[in-house]
């Protein structure tokens, strides 16, 4: 039996995972509903899966942050304490992450094996290029997009689906948080 793999990502309306300029974390739009909901997502037993670049970015942000910063929101702390697999051909353990292991090799092979062996669901937050490859290989069961009410046409960074294959999406869940943040969960299937 295979376990479920969720690609979880934050996005601007125009499809960017981050922005430069004077935008802050969450594009400055976070509220108590979003933060409480994010915390509840990480209550469940699950395994995180990151690519090397996302792991490095999270580790650096946490190292550079203070207890009061957005980076240390309770859901991030809870996520950091979940069992984690970092897929990398360049990193070696031990990692500066409480329960992380490095899986060397191609992400498609690593995640296919994890889906077969894991007794808990798998979740990846970010790791854009890795998750595009996993989607193309048919390994992503759910795409969870938290859509923030911003357009970052001039300052957008990290186009989430830039270079991705074509997919049809079936909406399986949706919710509005803090009045104008949308969480959309889709089941992707490769468009033939």
Automatic annotation (TrEMBL):
Superkingdom, taxonomy of origin: Bacteria
Molecular function terms, GO-annotated: 5-amino-6-(5-phosphoribosylamino)uracil reductase activity
GO biological process: riboflavin biosynthetic process
PANTHER family, alphabetized: BIFUNCTIONAL DEAMINASE-REDUCTASE DOMAIN PROTEIN (PTHR38011:SF2), DIHYDROFOLATE REDUCTASE FAMILY PROTEIN (AFU_ORTHOLOGUE AFUA_8G06820) (PTHR38011)
Protein name, UniProt field: Deaminase
Lineage: Bacteria, Bacillati, Actinomycetota, Actinomycetes, Kitasatosporales
């Amino acid at each position: 039996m295979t376990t479920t793999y969720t690609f979880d990502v934050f996005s601007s309306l125009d499809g960017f995972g981050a922005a430069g300029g004077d935008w802050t974390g969450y594009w400055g739009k976070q509220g108590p509903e979003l933060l409480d909901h994010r915390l509840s997502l990480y209550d469940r037993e699950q395994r995180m899966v990151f690519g090397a670049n996302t792991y490095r970015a999270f580790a650096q942000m946490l190292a550079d942050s203070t207890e009061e910063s957005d980076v240390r929101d309770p859901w991030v702390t809870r996520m950091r304490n979940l069992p984690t697999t970092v897929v990398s051909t360049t990193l070696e353990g031990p990692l500066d992450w409480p329960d992380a292991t490095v899986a060397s090799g191609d992400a498609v092979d690593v995640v296919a094996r994890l889906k077969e062996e894991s007794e808990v669901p798998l979740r990846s937050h970010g790791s854009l290029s890795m998750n595009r490859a996993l989607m193309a290989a048919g390994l992503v069961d759910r795409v969870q997009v938290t859509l923030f009410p911003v357009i970052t046409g001039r300052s957008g960074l990290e186009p989430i689906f830039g270079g991705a294959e074509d997919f049809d999406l079936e909406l399986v869940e949706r919710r509005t948080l803090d009045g104008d943040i949308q969480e959309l969960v889709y089941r992707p299937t490769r468009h033939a």
